[in-house]
Amino acid sequence: MLDYMMTKFAEQTSFMVVSFDILSNRLIFINTSARQRFNLQEGGAFDDFIDNMIIEDRNLLQLKLQLIKEKPIEGLILRFQRNEIISHLKFNFYHFNSEDSSQVLSIFEDVTDDVEFEENILKHNAKKNAILNILSHDVAGALNTASKLVELAYQSLEKQDFQKINSALFAIDNICKGNISIINSFLKKEFVTSMSVPLNMVRQDVVQSVKNLMDQYKLMGHQLEVEVIFNCKKNQIYIEIDQDKLIQILNNLISNALKFTPKGGAIKISIEESVDFVQICVEDTGIGIPETLKDHIFSKFGEANRTGLNGEQSHGVGLWIIKFLVEWMGGNITFSSFENFGTSFYLTFPKKIY
């Protein structure tokens, strides 16, 4: 039994207090707070007290209690489940200061609110990091493209080539609108880590969407020093897709292709249609992907991150984003690559018949 002073403390404290005999498995003392919370009775079984504890936590506690005479247990958070509601309790366990005593004192409190607050902080930090990673990859890449288009416009101005100037301005306008759309989607919490926000799946002419994008890159072909090719045998192919995210995917793939394709090479996008599917292929004549990296190519922050041929730094999330978005829209992505011969990424989306 607890002595008088300890009993008085146990009844006045805001903590829950339970003592038990570790050998007989019997509850010896229960203060009012613990009795009300768990409906316990002195003389009852300690196992009844931990019966609603999550099994992994219960096993952990039983292992630690085997060493309680050697070392107290402090700050151990254990989970209890009742009626599908999980609560987190923070425990301290102390063995009574007697070699032959088998009595253990436990002092604990409910820290569910603190744990949930910390989990929310971690979740929001993860979302923040996802936003920063995507913005740094997509927006920075698009701004780099716009910068090259501005250079092209200045060069064309000197030559008074107003047709090229108009084309460059048109492409810059499209890039700005695309980035505004991306930023607005983040402001609405519509980013890739949030599965609670529905996709904007609309029937789109995928040929026209991809052609408009490729026209922007073709304008920069001279500055990029690679040939940009678009190939599709049909003038129109309609599929249900989120157009903004499709452009995001293709910009990522083209950006990666540019990093690893030497001057004089080529980047080609082709679209093929079958009865049930539409496949978009992004192909380059670059340096390819080493065999040792192929298994990690879609890792979120994996070993496949490489510096581009001109020293471009990888943000480490581009291909993970692509895979996530493709699968989110019901498609799948595969690739083939041979060192020094190039890489091809294949995006396959189901086609609905209208």
Automatic annotation (TrEMBL):
Reactions accelerated catalytically: ATP + protein L-histidine = ADP + protein N-phospho-L-histidine
- Output the superkingdom of the source species: Bacteria
Alphabetically sorted, this entry's keywords are: Kinase, Phosphoprotein, Transferase
- Gene3D superfamilies recorded: Histidine kinase-like ATPase, C-terminal domain
E.C. number(s) listed in UniProt:
2.7.13.3
The secretion signal range is: none
Q: Does the keyword Kinase apply?
A: yes
**Residue span(s) of domain Histidine kinase:** 134-353
Q: Name one GO molecular function term.
A: phosphorelay sensor kinase activity
Is Ribonucleoprotein one of the keywords UniProt gives this record? no
* Protein name (Swiss-Prot/TrEMBL): histidine kinase
